[in-house]
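Because showing beats explaining, we let one protein speak, sequence and backbone structure tokens together, and leave readers to judge.
___
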Amino acid sequence: MYNPKSKIATEFIDHQEILDTLEYAKANKNNRELIESLIERAKDCKGLTHREALVLLECEEQDLIEKMYKLAKEIKQKFYGNRIVMFAPLYLSNYCVNGCVYCPYHAKNKHIARKKLTQEEIRNEVIALQDMGHKRLALETGEDPLHNPIEYVLESINTIYSIKHKNGAIRRVNVNIAATTVENYRKLKDAGIGTYILFQETYHKENYEKLHPTGPKSDYAYHTEAMDRAMEAGIDDVGMGVLFGLNTYKYDFTGLLMHAEHLEAVFGVGPHTISVPRICGADDINKEDFKDAISDDIFMKLVAVIRIAVPYTGMIISTRESQKTREKVLELGVSQLSGGSRTSVGGYVEEEPEEENSEQFDVSDKRTLDQVVNWLEELGYIPSFCTACYREGRTGDRFMSLVKSGQIANCCQPNALITLKEYLEDYASEDTKAKGEALIQRELERITNPKVKENAIKYLEKINEGNRDFRF
């Protein structure tokens, strides 16, 4: 029985409700009157239900798809402007006891190099990331109670926050680790994490269990209900996603939106972020083995409709995707981007030899952070290293109320410029710095609040004088 307020996974992600939604959307894929009415209504930026959103996704009329893209761009601009938040993943360990068939970390893989960073190695990785200019990390580990217990993760977070190197500092640590207990989520909250991230992979229970034949991750309910436990523990910023290509994309798209609706119904706060990874080759994983892998055109439509359906959420795209693909989806909805990423354990200090491969997936966009920042500047985006909301307590419902009202721009726009200025002064190449300085001057003129503009100019001048870490 479908019940978005239920705490039981198979009730808030009800299989029959998804099947009924798929049938409804298919029956209305050519219903121009309905589709146009949904596009028109979504202009109020209050989102759409999972059933309404799937109707848009099913639509194949090119003129209507272009209207969706136009609306997605407008919604993205309203909520997030032209700011793109920068981050990097940091892999602590690839020891894993699970049997996930799409991930090279699976326990049966005997030839991948198994690694776990010591605290000193973590320190060296973080210094390397700081020297690139990063301020925000996403911690990644395999699931292994022996090698990667919660105590190791907590110690690692403490190490990361403690490192101050030259003008560098990691100001926000997001955490992507396996589903755990309320008690452990409380420990992560107390450690000062930003967002807790966990991908569902697929919402199709039967296929989920086939894809996860062994290990603790094979428990569909425990995994799917993890966000509830995290939010009960006080972590009010959570990040969701599916791995598109593991299952039919329409089913998982519907499940993803139902999960967002569930969090809104129970906690009054939807997902802080939604990630949109696609199945990717790595080590003993062949992308061609997954018949449900999706095309670039479908991927673009997915991003656009998610942005329309869940307008408030941040959307993340990683270096799984090529420069060309990332450029296409930036304007359609993506607001966070990784740069200069390594998906190997210990890959930032020095590139690992090919025979010691420990990567979770093949990186398609291999550019340095400076090259990515330069590219974003050329496209007219503001590369933002801002972490202010998390450190000012603007999380959960406080963050969402500001986003939904549009008031967040009074903080985000100047904070993006201030943190970009820090990057330009401390890390950028000459060309990136010149483009960035011109961008900052142009964007200052777009700040309409006189007091905000005055303070932004004051902070920018102080950064020129050698001061750091200002925020609105």
